[in-house]
Structure to design on (320 residues):
């Protein structure tokens, strides 16, 4: 990649991550046995679905939002009171607490949505939906979308291990399910929607602020894979030992290609799709940033932060 900057309309990540000896996502307990998150995977040509360990997209997005919260505070980005506290309602917290956000003249969705976007970086990037006491609903879809982190069949294993909690009285026996394996991960970023107000087809914040938020979002994604927070980390800290895949970026109105790594040929297919889209839409429409290690992934994210600008247009995007 050159030092020349380029706009990001959308970006996707398709990758394979190896996590050893983790219990990041549990569904609850049955007696003294913790139950790990499991998914059915149906493979072409195999009538028997595979039951594999995984981490939900909800968990991954919470991890990413947690990192974004810290980055936003460190970078001095605008946050609502709920956002500062990492309250799950974000801007909804401010409204429920009657914190002054809107003036008496702010009655339409266009003005109110613009003020929410201006006030809270996390609400802008992670989405929001809140119903005011007067009955008006403010909402906006998330800029970032996560798929589940799902074990590749035949390359993931879950076992139950006996533990005992010792105290002053009798020890309490319990079993914990621990998993190791190779996991497929996908995510998508609609960078063009950072700061975008769909009610008047314009941006509620200026380009420099949108760039700061894009950088914070990219950095939070890097941190999500560097430190996947979750359950049982105090004694079952995951051993991340491999991460490979490809980041795709589009510079025009075109979705960034993404193929699940559950398909063995995913990287070849993504490259072929990128070539096709570049022929259809012009050279440079799709850029590929492959990586074979976590270190290379970090370098590619650094390159994106250094060279990318949020895609901008004065022409309308489809309303949500």
């Amino acid at each position: 990649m050159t030092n020349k900057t380029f706009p990001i309309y959308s970006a996707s990540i398709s990758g394979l991550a190896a996590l050893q000896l983790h219990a990041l996502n549990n569904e609850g307990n049955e007696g003294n046995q913790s139950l790990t998150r499991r998914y059915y995977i149906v493979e072409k040509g195999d009538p028997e679905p595979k039951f594999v360990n995984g981490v939900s997209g909800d968990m991954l997005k919470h991890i990413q939002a947690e990192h974004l919260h810290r980055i936003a505070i460190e970078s001095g980005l605008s946050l609502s009171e709920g956002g500062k506290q990492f309250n799950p309602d974000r801007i909804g917290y401010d409204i429920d607490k009657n914190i002054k956000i809107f003036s008496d003249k702010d009655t339409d969705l266009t003005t109110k949505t613009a003020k929410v976007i201006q006030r809270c970086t996390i609400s802008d990037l992670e989405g929001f939906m809140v119903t005011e006491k007067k009955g008006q609903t403010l909402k906006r879809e998330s800029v970032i979308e996560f798929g589940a982190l799902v074990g590749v069949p035949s390359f993931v294993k879950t076992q139950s291990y006996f533990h005992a909690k010792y105290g002053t009285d009798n020890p309490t026996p319990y079993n914990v399910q621990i998993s190791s394996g190779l996991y497929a991960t996908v995510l998508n970023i609609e960078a063009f929607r950072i700061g975008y107000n769909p009610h008047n087809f314009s941006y509620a914040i200026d380009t420099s602020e949108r760039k700061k938020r894009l950088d914070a979002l990219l950095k939070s994604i890097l941190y999500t894979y560097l430190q996947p927070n979750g359950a049982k980390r105090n004694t079952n800290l995951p051993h991340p030992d491999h991460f490979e895949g490809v980041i795709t970026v589009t510079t025009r109105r075109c979705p960034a290609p993404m193929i699940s790594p559950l398909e063995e040929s995913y990287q070849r297919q993504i490259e072929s799709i990128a070539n096709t889209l570049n022929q259809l839409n012009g050279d440079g429409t799709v850029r590929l940033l492959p990586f074979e290690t976590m270190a290379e992934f970090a370098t590619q994210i650094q390159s994106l932060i250094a060279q990318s600008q949020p895609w901008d247009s004065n022409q309308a995007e489809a309303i949500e």
